[in-house]
Amino acid sequence: MKIKTKYREIKDGFSLKNNSLFNTISKMEPKSVINTIPITWNKAVDFSVWDDKGNKWIDMTSGIFVTNAGHSNPKIKKAIKDQLDSDMLFAYNYPTKIKHKFISKLLSISPSYYNSAILLNSGSEAMDIVYKLIKLYGQKYNKKYIITFKGNYHGRGLSNDLVSGSIDKAKWSGVGDNSVIFLDFPYNEEDVFDPTKLPPAEEIAGFIVETFQGWGEWFYPQKYIKDLYQFAKKSGALVSFDEMQAGFYRLGPIYGYMTYGKEIRPDIIGLGKGISSSLPISAVLSRKDIVNIDEKADLHGTHSGNALACAAGLANLEFLSSSQQIKLREKTMKVFEKEMSSLLSSSLVKKINVRGMMGAIIFDKTEDALRVVKECIYNGVLPVCTNKNSIKIAPPLTISTEALLEAFKVIKDALGIRE
Ligand SMILES: Cc1ncc(COP(=O)(O)O)c(C=O)c1O
How far does the centroid of ligand 1 lie from the alpha carbon of residue 155, in Å? Predict the structure, then answer.
């Protein structure tokens, strides 16, 4: 046995090269969908992940920022089993008790300025609806433009590509949306929101903002986002936040945009990932006046509000919003933020971005980031490999202080930090 502790187990002979299941599946799926890390996930419980050979990692990925309540959370498992046993698995868009309970819980823990929820299955779908609502609003009030940011990510569908990355992202489709304006992302603290770079204020329908830019957890400068918000409010433009990674207590408060200050009250938010910590479900929260602009607008699908997914979501929200969990997280998030900040002492590290239980290590070189990812994996810690010059660290919010410190020791070793 190479490594054996309470939280990690890496057996002799473990290698990132020799996974036969990975090789077999790789032949049946497109190259673009295959994870670059050949680990077979066999079992995942709370903040631990096992492969099929019994190797065990401390999961610093939460899947991909999904399992905020921990993998295979017992309360979520029980809720799914109970729903299964009730013989109510699917009901299209007819009312079900479980959908009612889930929406009620979601709205009750969200700020009261949201009074309407649209249920969907994925983050991409949620952001597609955000795009659609802003478009419909623009048509009603004769406002043409949508403002978004270069480098942000909002999903994989056509409408997502039209507002993600850069104007080139949707080139494959042969269609474009000349009403979408990409602003440079304000990576520096001193960057200011400059309305002179925008079309006339009264012609702007809305802003699509990723709460932080994903690959490196880049936050907008505080003043920038406040100025953007005030500008939008004054000019009658909608403000939407993509909360896919930042939502459901990942950064501390229930939604990540709240970390920019109380005065920021987006008109629309897109939610997914941590909404269920398990089964596929997503949502858009907004107000009745916005979601009903066009009463005939197509805003749902076959599986929207699926009963099993709602049961998982309800148990997840009940768990995450419980006072006991909030109290536990207050302590571990402080440890996390301190440990993340201490990584700056490595000569390999250019910048640390951290808020709540989400952190990013920014390197000069992608090769350094890839080497550190591998080193961590060979030592029983699984970080998020971005395949860029960053590594993201985001364990389930249920992780213990002891396991956090053990994981950070491995990360520090990989970064060459000697304590
Ligand atoms: C910020 C953001 N928006 C949207 C999406 C798309 O979500 P999904 O993969 O559930 O469609 C993601 C997924 O990674 C994301 O990180």
Answer: 5
